Structures are given as C-alpha cells and as structure tokens.
Give the backbone structure.
Amino acid sequence: MVSTSKAVAKDKPIKATPAQREWLARGLGQPGGKLPLFDRNGQRVNTRTVRACMDRGWAEPWFDNPLKPDWLVCKLTSTGRDVARGP
C-alpha cells in the first residue's frame, strides 16, 4: 500500500507568508499589539490571513466588535511578536 500523505517534520517551524508577516508587523507599534482591520490600501485584511495567524498562535481575539460581529479584532501574542520581527 502506498501512502499519499506527506510527512511533516514536527520540529520544523511554520513560516509566515509575506502577507501574514506584514499584518503581524503592523501590530508591533500599536498599544497592546492591536492588529489592523484594514491593509495599507484601506481594504479589509483577508480573513484567511487572520484565521491562519490565529490557528498558528500568532494572533488571538481581543474583543468582540458589536458593530461588525463578523470582523475579528485581534492582538499579537508573544509568539506573533517574534514572527513579526523576523529571523
């Protein structure tokens, strides 16, 4: 039987994409590490970027937004700060 699943090294750290790193870096200078809802062009940050960073423990929900409950207001975690600063 041939396995088609890929083996993943457990020691290998997951690298952030350029979009993820840029989003995380924008929280470094903000009070409490607040991450922006919008990119530098005024467009809403891609939900996949936000979710991927949350799934990896780089960002966490900060509070619920009663005006826009579908928007995730997040802040950096300590691991997220390390990722944002780069290698």
